[in-house]
Amino acid sequence: MISGAPASGKGTQCAYIVEKYGLLHISTGDLLRAEVAAGTENGLKAKKYMTKGQLVPDDIVIQMVKDRLEEADSQGKGWLLDGFPRSSSQADALKALGIKPDVFIVLDVPEEVLIERVVGRRLDPLTGKIYHLKYAPPESEDIASRLTQRIDDTEDKAKVRLQSYAMNVGALSSIYADVMQKVDGNRPKLLVFEEIDRVLTDLQDKYERGLTAGEEKIEVPSGVIYENKDNWRGIPTRLNSIPHSREIREYFYDDVCRATKNAVEDGIHKLKVQITIPELNPEMDVYRIGTLLELMRELAFSFARDGKRVKVCVQGSMGAGIFAGMPLQLAGTRRMLEVMDWGEYESKGTFINIGSIGANEVTDNDDMFILMAPQNAVGNCIIDDLQAMVIAAGDRPVIIVNPRLKDLPSAAGVMQIRGREKRMEFAGSFFVCYNFRLLYLSGTQYPILGALRMAYPSQYELYKRVDLDSGKERYALLGTFTEEPTTEEITAAFDGRDPKKLSNTGGLWKILFGSI
């Protein structure tokens, strides 16, 4: 697969790749036109939308791509998919069909260069040849006098297209991270191809030696079986090493985003994300608010890239007068959200807005709401405002991330009794679409004994951490559960017993716990 912004030179590089490697070049635009012209079943479906000037739905385009890739010439020559998929939902659909590239090439060109390339383009209406006023000027004054500029080749319209591209390629980068190759496209076209050629040549060499992309040999203890990288759904290692590496954080951001999007696409609109890796566990002294802010941003981006208007919300001060205040964990976070980097393409203020928690924050312009760590404070409760917001949102998704909605006693040690049962019922009514927590011995936060993970629509997965002879570690899958396992069931699995045949005996593992 190859991806590049408008005017990145992607078409030129596709021509070079096809010429040298003989791959079948597939562009969805060309494919749509060919299917319509041939009057195929897919073509007739697509024509209904194209004649009305509407976008052809993803399921029709994906079916066309799937059918084309299954034809004999695609299977025999290999294929080059040009500019598709464009969104994470399209990529996920291809992945579900078993369609994955050996390499995902992204042409990287600075925005100012792309705009200069677009604005300077001119078309000869007689020959159809494309010129550029600076880089490829016309050969004569006669030709120059008849050149025209496409209506879309203006700076304002170029910026809109670049904004859309940047959001989409960000989503694809996480999906194809293990096979992605960024190539500097701000060079002469032959130098760009030289780098692409090296990437493809190296890939050919690996196949000739019998290795596939992403494959590696792993030495593991006898009796423990691990899946290869392409099928791996395990746990990143060294989670007690703080700060977490960028790779670890991005793994969890991607894991959360995928599960949440799956749940939203299935029509679930009251969702909860619970993730307590050390940097996101407020009970640990290594808690980092920046990691939570990053997670909120990535989750918002994952929906904004699909054209959703997202409101990211953090609660304001609760109480009145000298008793006003807010949880220490959230102090100053509204300002942090306002000033943090939301990308170069003005996504903040268009696709993404910042708000508070409450019914008055819900407007007709919002498609969904993501709430950062809503929680009660001493003597104050956020649940009433949260419930009012959910009611005002109607069927629009409301996603709460790492909520802490248990009642807290007042300064006098008195619990909030009135209405408590209904508040707790509402707090428990959110559907858990993602849950990850580490398992330790009670009263400790080291060493990590295992982990519990659930990413919708998968079941709960229980892992045991295994030390390898090389000094490294892996997480071995002990079992799966349709519902969140109890402490007793986790204990039984770690003891090697069937969790379905529990007794009242305890043992060492009886005191396993994970921060909730």
Structure described in brief:
With 516 residues, this protein is an alpha/beta fold. Helix content is 36%, strand content 17%.
Description:
With 516 residues, this protein is an alpha/beta fold. It contains 16 helices and 17 strands. Helix 2 (28-38) packs across helix 3 (41-50) and helix 11 (246-265) packs across helix 12 (289-304). It is globular and about 80 Å long. The model is unreliable at 211-233, 411-415 and 504-516 (pLDDT under 50). This is adenylate kinase. It comes from Ceratopteris richardii (Triangle waterfern). It catalyses: AMP + ATP = 2 ADP. Its EC number is 2.7.4.3.
Average pLDDT confidence is 81
Major sheet summary line: 10 strands, mixed
Which consecutive residue ranges, at least 5 long each, have pLDDT under 50?
A: 211-233, 411-415, 504-516
Oligomer: single chain
Number of discrete helical segments? 16
Shape, per Cα inertia axes: globular
The proportion of residues forming helix, as a percent range, comes to 25-40%
Write the layout of secondary structure elements.
Blueprint: E1 2-4, H1 10-21, E2 24-27, H2 28-38, H3 41-50, H4 58-69, H5 72-77, E3 79-82, H6 88-96, E4 104-108, H7 111-119, E5 121-123, E6 130-132, H8 141-146, H9 155-175, E7 180-184, H10 189-208, H11 246-265, E8 270-276, H12 289-304, E9 310-313, H13 333-339, E10 352-355, E11 368-372, H14 383-393, E12 398-401, H15 420-427, E13 431-441, E14 450-455, E15 460-467, E16 473-481, H16 487-495, E17 512-513
Parallel strand pairs: 1-4, 2-3, 4-7, 8-12, 8-13, 9-10, 9-11, 11-12
Antiparallel strand pairs: 5-6, 13-14, 13-17, 14-15, 15-16
Helix pairs in contact: 1-10, 2-3, 3-4, 7-9, 11-12
